[in-house]
């Protein structure tokens, strides 16, 4: 599924906010000072229990095993691509939508390697709970991807963005490297500012589209086909 197959009809982000939210520091500080204690949803606990068995078996069977977390994975295209690119890792893709996860996209994807990709797991779960369970289980995550999350562009929805959420303190402790992508630069600038409040540095750069190199997600492909610039934030946690 290269960008040649994608229509360029994706609209740019429209927001009533043109700078970092003036409540960002207040919101992030509150979450850093108060532990998130909301009860876990049963379906996420069950899903985590099952996938954790597979993760622990993988870690036991593989010396220097690498776990990659692909949060908000949607249809799982990025999960499969990351698995292709990291054949010695177990890639865990997580999304809250069963409908997205159950779509059959493998036949539409351009394989970057030979053979069937099997080193990935797709999980339906609420990340607000899943993140806390991963943190408690101390998974040795090397890379933590959050690719094109819902930007919630209205100013009043700051706390629906990941950096404004109550689980932010736990999520940024998962992975040696955190990689976010968005077509709304301000979203990443806010995340970068939130990271600084925890003493963490990060680098914000443009995503350069390359011909014949598959976009990581269908959203990325649509943004590129629409002529929108995509951005990437990387933090070494």
Overview of the molecule:
By secondary structure, the chain is α/β, with parallel strands linked by helices. The longest helix is centred in the first third of the chain and has 20 residues, at 42-61. The protein has one domain (23-209, 231-236): Vaccinia Virus protein VP39 (Rossmann fold). Helix 2 packs parallel to helix 5. It is built from eight helices and seven strands. A seven-stranded mixed sheet has the order 3-2-1-4-5-7-6, with helices on both faces.
Helix content: 25-40%
Principal-axis shape: globular
CATH superfamily: Vaccinia Virus protein VP39
CATH topology: Rossmann fold
Mean of residue pLDDT values? 91
CATH architecture: 3-Layer(aba) Sandwich
The quaternary state of the protein chains shown equals single chain
**How many β-strand stretches?**
7
Number of domains: 1
Q: How can the largest sheet be summarized?
A: 7 strands, mixed
- Low-pLDDT runs: 1-6, 110-114
What is the alpha-carbon Rg in Å? 18 Å
Strand order within the widest sheet?
A: 3-2-1-4-5-7-6
Tally of DSSP helical segments: 8
In short:
With 237 residues, the protein is α/β, with parallel strands linked by helices.
């Amino acid at each position: 599924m290269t960008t040649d197959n994608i229509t360029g009809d994706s609209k740019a982000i429209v927001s009533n906010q043109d700078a970092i939210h003036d409540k960002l520091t207040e919101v992030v500080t509150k979450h850093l000072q108060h532990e998130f204690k909301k009860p876990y949803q049963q379906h996420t606990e069950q899903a985590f229990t099952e996938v954790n068995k597979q993760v622990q078996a993988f870690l036991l069977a593989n010396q220097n095993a690498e776990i990659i977390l692909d949060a908000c994975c949607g249809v799982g295209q990025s999960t499969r691509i990351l698995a292709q690119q990291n054949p010695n890792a177990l890639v865990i893709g997580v999304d809250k939508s069963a409908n997205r996860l159950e779509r059959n996209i493998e036949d539409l994807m351009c394989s970057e390697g030979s053979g069937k990709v099997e080193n990935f797991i797709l999980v339906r779960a609420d990340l607000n709970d899943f993140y806390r369970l991963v943190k408690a289980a101390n998974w040795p995550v090397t890379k933590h991807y959050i690719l094109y999350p819902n930007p919630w562009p209205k100013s009043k929805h700051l706390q629906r963005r990941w950096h404004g959420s109550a689980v932010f303190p736990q999520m940024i402790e998962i992975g040696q490297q955190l990689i976010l992508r968005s077509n709304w630069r301000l979203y990443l600038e806010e995340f970068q500012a939130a990271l600084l409040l925890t003493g963490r540095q990060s680098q914000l750069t443009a995503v350069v589209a390359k011909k014949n190199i598959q976009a990581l997600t269908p959203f990325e492909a649509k943004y590129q086909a629409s002529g929108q610039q995509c951005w990437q934030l990387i933090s070494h946690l």
